[in-house]
Amino acid sequence: MKDALVPVLVVIGLLLLAGLTLFLVRRPRRGALPPAEEQRPGIERGEKIPPSVITAPAPEKPAPEKAPEKAAPGKPAVVPAPAPPAPGETAPPVEVAPPKPAEPEIETPEPTAGRLVRLRARLSRSQNVFGKGLLGLLSRDHLDDDAWDEVEESLISADVGVQATTEIVAKLRERTRVLGTRTSADLRALLTEELTEALDPKLDRSLHTGVVDGKPSVILVVGVNGAGKTTSCGKIARVLVADGHTVVLGAADTFRAAAAEQLATWASRVGAQVVRGPEGGDPAAVAFDAVKKGIDAGVDTVLIDTAGRLQNKVGLMDELGKIKRVVEKHGPVSETLLVLDATAGQNGLSQARVFTEVADVTGVVLTKLDGTAKGGIVIAVQRALGIPVKLVGLGEGPDDLAPFDPQQFVSALLGDE
Ligand SMILES: Nc1nc2c(ncn2[C@@H]2O[C@H](COP(=O)(O)OP(=O)(O)OP(=O)(O)O)[C@@H](O)[C@H]2O)c(=O)[nH]1
């Protein structure tokens, strides 16, 4: 009996050995590369991708399925251990699910109120000219013609512009004469009033957002190359979300390869959707699709980034007109924001004038004010264009874009008391 069992045990042993060998051979190697080309559902291999592809869809809740335990970031997901094989069966290969790409965390942008106050230190370069420089000059015991010339020079070198400077100096001269005694508090108050007045505090600086006639408002963002349009679009989206709006972004800068990607990243951070097209595609088509997406998704604002263009390039300027016309098939453009680089100073002004002629600009976003000592450019821009500065860029951080407020700005320029 015992002897009869020996061959049976040997056979069972051999079978188990064969099963184990098979399992080891078939087990996938760690780090194996994925197939060379992944096919997108609904798109044949080699087929052209449709003109506009929606990315970063609004985070829809996935249907609750018996999901494997969530993996720690960067680690493979843990899958339940399979049931042990029945005797004689080959053990199935153990599969380890590849780590899921971490979903971008949706951020809560900082409230917009008080941003300019928070960022006032970023104006330190301009503070040297206005606060230390001008207040120092005005507090001299004797304000003769030479001293007033110096005041004038300071304002012009801070890009305030000749006409505005002449007016400001004339008023300061008159008021200091009438005032007689001049304490530093008096002078600060005088300068504050005159600079604030030069910034025309009564202008409407609100962004034209919200649903109009059942459709989202449309904001076009335009400007020359490198002024900070794409970055500002991302930051404006955060401003809008912080103020309780819902946004779709349109990546109509199909010229610069990285712009759409950049915009998609900004959008995903606040859970907004982006409509983008193929590189070199028709920007007007993307803008049209973005507004359509905005209507379908029921958001209240559609923000469209456009390619940087030089004011002397007729074709590019015509393209801007086309984008506007095509978008207006859905309804009027509510706002056209011109992005201007503050460090370009007076040069930027001549470029800006051409944009205002072509694009019916309703507001200015003045970027990179943190990088210049010429904070007076805000006064010059408004004077030259007759258009309010609505937002100012004061750094590269996501919430370093502040709604512009003349009183807060002047107080920041003059520095701490
Ligand atoms: N310091 C500072 N940098 C800024 C500010 N706004 C934008 N930038 C930087 O300016 C650079 C250009 O910004 P983009 O948004 O790419 O400019 P763009 O106008 O879209 O560029 P094009 O698509 O080439 O026309 C980036 O490095 C931004 O981080 C700002 O307010 N302060």
UniProtKB/TrEMBL annotation:
Reactions listed under catalytic activity: GTP + H2O = GDP + phosphate + H(+)
Alphabetical list of InterPro entries matching this protein: AAA+_ATPase, P-loop_NTPase, Signal_recog_particl_SRP54_hlx, SR_rcpt_FtsY, SRP/SRP_N, SRP54_GTPase_dom, SRP54_N_sf
Annotated ranges, domain SRP54-type proteins GTP-binding: 388-401
GO molecular function: GTP binding; GTPase activity; signal recognition particle binding
Membrane topology: Peripheral membrane protein
Biased composition (Basic and acidic residues): 37-48
SUPFAM superfamilies from the UniProt entry: Domain of the SRP/SRP receptor G-proteins, P-loop containing nucleoside triphosphate hydrolases
Positions of the UniProt region annotated as Disordered: 33-108
Keywords, alphabetical: Cell membrane, Cytoplasm, GTP-binding, Hydrolase, Membrane, Nucleotide-binding, Receptor, Transmembrane, Transmembrane helix
Cellular location(s): Cell membrane; Cytoplasm
A biological process from GO: SRP-dependent cotranslational protein targeting to membrane
Residues noted as binding GTP in the record, renumbered to the chain: 223-230, 305-309, 367-370
Keyword flag Cell membrane: yes
Main location as per UniProt: membrane
GO cellular component, one term: cytoplasm
Gene3D superfamilies in the record: P-loop containing nucleotide triphosphate hydrolases, Signal recognition particle SRP54, nucleotide-binding domain
Record-annotated membrane-spanning stretches: 6-25
EC nos: 3.6.5.4
Homology family: Belongs to the GTP-binding SRP family. FtsY subfamily.
Listed HAMAP family: FtsY
Subunit note: Part of the signal recognition particle protein translocation system, which is composed of SRP and FtsY.
Protein task: Involved in targeting and insertion of nascent membrane proteins into the cytoplasmic membrane. Acts as a receptor for the complex formed by the signal recognition particle (SRP) and the ribosome-nascent chain (RNC).
Full protein name: Signal recognition particle receptor FtsY
Source organism of this protein record: Catellatospora chokoriensis
